[in-house]
Design brief:
The protein is of the alpha+beta class. The chain has helices at residues 8-23, 38-51; strands at residues 4-6, 55-62, 73-81. The chain has a 3-stranded antiparallel β-sheet with strand order 1-3-2, with helices on one face. The longest helix has 16 residues, at 8-23.
């Protein structure tokens, strides 16, 4: 999960910034409102930096894409690490 309970447009901005931080392996750029699992993601990104792995964004989406309301969405991101 990425952002929670923002409008669709706000979530897109927050989730895009979170994805950029993840791909850059920059946990210090993740704010608490950008990812509910920020601490776990930060640990993974630190380990990726230590071992030379990279992250790639596969897809960003939010709960409105499945028919939910657009005024209060949950953002989701899919990433690969290799």
């Amino acid at each position: 999960d990425l952002s929670h309970y923002h409008s669709h447009d706000e979530a897109r901005v927050l989730d895009s910034a979170a994805a950029a931080a993840i791909v850059a392996l920059a946990p210090e750029r993740l704010a608490s409102e950008q990812a509910c699992g920020r601490a776990a993601i930060a640990g993974l990104l630190a380990r990726c930096r230590e071992t030379g792995l990279t992250a790639q964004a596969l897809r960003l989406a939010d709960s409105s894409e499945q028919g939910g309301p657009r005024d209060r969405v949950v953002g989701y991101g899919a990433f690969s690490v290799a």
